[in-house]
Amino acid sequence: MAFVPTPEQRAAIEHPLADACVTAGAGSGKTAVLTARFVHLVDRHALPVRRVAALTFTEKAAAQMRERIAAALEARGRHADLEELEFAPISTIHAFCARLLRLHAVDAGLDPAFQVLDESESLLLREDAWDEALLHLVRTGSSDVAALARIATTDPRAELLDLLERVRGSGVAPSA
């Protein structure tokens, strides 16, 4: 089934030569719009494939975009562009930023071999940091637990209660 854009989607696809951000709910056609915009920029404005970035949040959407762009370029007989597609920055925002940081690691003060944490590694690291911070407050007798609550990312009260429960279970007693 061919993608028939709404007037709003058509405006996003044909937006003047400038950065564009497509935001909409799940299943609304964001990937189709980004794909059509990419092809429009390459086909109508003769932009090099390597110079058009198409960024999304999920690996699945990035893979779909790359596949759809390849199919559209092939249908248009743009074989040279198709060969360049491998080098186009079509990826997740995280992968794009990691690639950019690796290219400029020294300037950014980073180890070029840095790794982006996956979701489970990130969660474990955050939990460890919370535990360490709370244990420090307990050991030093600090009553400023509100400082920890201010940096909580989701529900500060729930995170703090969860941490307090873990500290109680660890057998560490507050210093007098």
Shape, please? Answer: elongated
Distance between termini? 71 Å
- Computed Rg: 24 Å
Main β sheet profile: 2 strands, parallel
Number of helices, counting only DSSP H or I runs of 4 residues or more: 9
The residue fraction in helices comes out at 55-70%
Strand portion: under 5%
Which structural class fits the helix and strand makeup? mainly alpha
Count of strand segments: 2
- Specify the oligomeric state: single chain
Please provide the ordered H/E string of secondary-structure elements: HHEHHEHHHHH
Low-pLDDT parts are none
Strand order of the largest sheet: 1-2
Arithmetic mean pLDDT: 83
Report on the structure:
The protein is mainly α. It has helices at 7-13, 30-45, 59-75, 79-84, 93-103, 105-108, 119-140, 146-150, 156-170; strands at residues 54-56, 90-92. It has a two-stranded parallel sheet. Helix 1 (7-13) crosses helix 2.
Write a short abstract of this structure.
The chain has nine helices and two strands, in the order ααβααβααααα. The chain has about 180 residues and is mainly alpha-helical.
